[in-house]
Amino acid sequence: MRKAFIRNIAEVEWKEFPAHHGGALSKPLVAADNSDARLIDHRISCYQPMAYVERHAHKVQEQVYHVLEGEGLMEIAGEKRVVRRHDVIFIPPGIEHAISNTGLVDLVFLVITTPMTDE
User: Which Pfam families does this one have (predicted)?
Assistant: First the structure.
């Protein structure tokens, strides 16, 4: 039987995942390694000024980014656009993308990914 839970964000440690640089930190709030989740990965990320994730694409994963604070530069399929509070970004599988904090304060955003079968 799968297990439900309530977890406070403060219970989860910040991590700098591979290909993330300069203070591009994330808290994996719901992930395969800390829950019974099979079809979703939910993180909150906090990128310090000049932090970024390298350009990459996922084979089968869909992703949603939801910017909560700050501003940065989102690159999707070679096109760059400023993103800021309340912007929601959808990335289908196979599309190269990257995000960086080009602002003056921390860039804070949610990342929701499904399924978690490739990386």
Answer: Cupin_2
Domain range list for the chain: 23-83+95-100
Side chain identity, residue 67: V
Concatenate the DSSP letters of all residues of 16-64 into one string: --TTEESSEEEEEEE-TTTSS-SS-EEEEEEEPTT-EE--B--SS-EEE
Instruction: Return the ∠ at Cα 86 (arms to 84 and 96), rounded to 5°.
Output: 60
- Exposure string of 86-101, with b = 16+ CB inside 10 Å and e = fewer, is ebebebeeeeebebbb
Encode pLDDT of 55-114 as tens digits: 999 999 999 999 999 999 999 999 999 999 999 999 999 999 999 999 999 999 999 999
CB atoms within 10 A of CB 30: 16
Q: What is the largest CA-CA distance in the chain?
A: 46
